[in-house]
C-alpha cells in the first residue's frame, strides 16, 4: 500500500510520501513515490503516486521518456494544463493496459497528486483519478491524501488551515504519517519530504527520512508520549452523576434489549423466519426488541485479517 | 456506515456503537447497533452489528424471535458456544438471502462483535465475519472494531493494554469515536456506551450519549484543544542542520528527478511507449529517472469523493 499527503497553504506546498510497496505481505519492497520535474527559476512540479506500481511506473514513463523540454510537462503553460497532461497520460496507459488487466481481474488502480508552480502563476495542487479526471485543492479543502489515508486524516482535519505556516504543515504531515505507520504495516519508511516555498521556483527543502532520522524519531516519540499524557489528564467518566450525564442504566436511557420468548416460534429454528417483524407468528409473542427505525446499505469492511 | 468498537481488559468489557445508517448521503437515518441479551446474575451478552442493515436486522431476528429461554443464546453454556450460535444465524440468513442479493449485485455485508460473560466463565470477546466464522480477542489484540475503523485506530493502538482500567478504556473508546465522527460524516450520534464489569453478570453501566451530552462534549473539545497544544509544542523541523537531520536537498539525499530528454522519442507521443525502461529507443537518451527497484500490486482507493 501507500500513504501520500500533500498540503497547500498560503506559504507554499508540502509533499510527503512513504516508500513501501507490497504484493501481499510476503512481497514487500521499497519504491519511491515522489517524483520531481524541475526547471529551476521557471517551474517545479511534484508528482505523488499510489496504486498498482506497474501502472504508476507506466504513467511516469509516459510523462518523461523521450519527452523533450518543449513538450509535455516541460511545456505546460500553467498547472491546470499540467494536470490535464498527467490525466492524459493516465488515459493513454489505461487504453494500452486495460484489456490485459481485465483478463486477469486486476483493477486499473492508480491515484496521483500533482502540485507545484509554473512561472508567474500561483502554487496549485491537484488530485488525479484513475479515469484521468482531476480536482483542485481549495481554501476549504487544502490537502489531498492518496493510499491509506484514514489513519492520518484526523490530525490533518484538526490542524491544517490555509494560513498554517509551512513548517507546521510539514510537521503535521509527518505526524499524520507517524499515526499511519503505527497502525498499518503496509506503509513504511523511508519517507520523501519536499517542502516548496511559494515563488521560489526551485526545490530548496527536501529530506529523505530514514529509520534513524533524529527529527522524525523525536516527533514520533514525543507525539506518542504527549498523546498519552493528554489522554490521562482528561477526566474519566463519572457514572450516575447528573452533571456528568453518563447516566446509569437505571435512568431513562436503556440499551436495546432482547428477552426470551415465552413460547417457541411456530416453525422450528432452521425453517424460514417470519418475513417482517411487523407480522410475528400469532402463536409466539415477539421477543422484546426496542429500537428506532432505520435503513442502510452501508459498506463496511469484508473479512479483514486480525487485528484489523 | 457504522463505527463500533469493543475493548477487552482485565477488568471487563467496553462496548461503544454509533447509530448512523445511510443508503447514500441523501438517505441518512438512526439505528441502534448495540443489543443486549441479559439474564441478570447468570449471563450478559452484548452484540454490535455493522453492514447492510437488512442483514444485521435479520441476524438479530433470527437470534431472538421465538427463541425461548432454553434455546439459542439463552442456553449457550459458554461464550464460545454463543459465538458459534451467532455465526450459525449469520449462515442461515446468508442461505436465505444470498440468491436475491446476488441478483441485485448486493454484497452479503455484515460484521459483528459479540462479548460478554456466562456463569463462572471469564469475560470473552469475539468478532464474527460474514461467513459466520469468528476470532477471539487475545492478550496481544484486546480490541475489535467494525465499520469505519481506521480513523479511530491510532489512539486505541497507543493506549489500550490488557491492564488498562475500565474507565480509561471507556474514555479511549469515546476518544476513538470522536476522531471518527470528526473525519467521517457517515458515522453519527447518538452513541450507545456499555461498560461491563467482569463478574457482575448484569448491565450496570450504560449510557445513551446524545448531541448535548456534557461529558462527551467536554472530552471532544478538551481532546481537540490539547492535541493542538501538543502539536504546537513539538519543535518544528530545522533544515540543513546536522543535528536535526532534515537535510537540505544539496546534501546526499535527492528526490527522484525527471529531466527533459535531449531528443524526442523515436515514435511520436500518442503511439506505443517503449516496452521497458531497460530498452530505450536508441535515438533518444532516456530521461534521468533515479529510483530504487520495487514491485507492488497494492490496492488503494478507487475514486473517492472530495475531500477523501
Describe the 3D structure.
The structure is a homodimer of 308-residue chains. The first copy, chain A, has helices at residues 53-64, 72-75, 79-103, 153-159, 166-183, 214-233, and strands spanning 3-9, 12-17, 20-22, 28-30, 34-39, 43-51, 110-118, 124-128, 134-136, 143-147, 191-197, 205-209, 256-258. With 308 residues, chain A is of the alpha+beta class. The first copy, chain A, has one domain: Aminohydrolase, N-terminal nucleophile (Ntn) domain (Glutamine Phosphoribosylpyrophosphate, subunit 1, domain 1). In chain A, a hairpin with a 5-residue loop joins strand 7 and strand 8 (124-128). Chain A is globular, with a radius of gyration of 26 Å. The interface between A and B is large, with 156 and 156 residues. Strand 13 (256-258) of chain A pairs parallel with strand 5 of chain B.
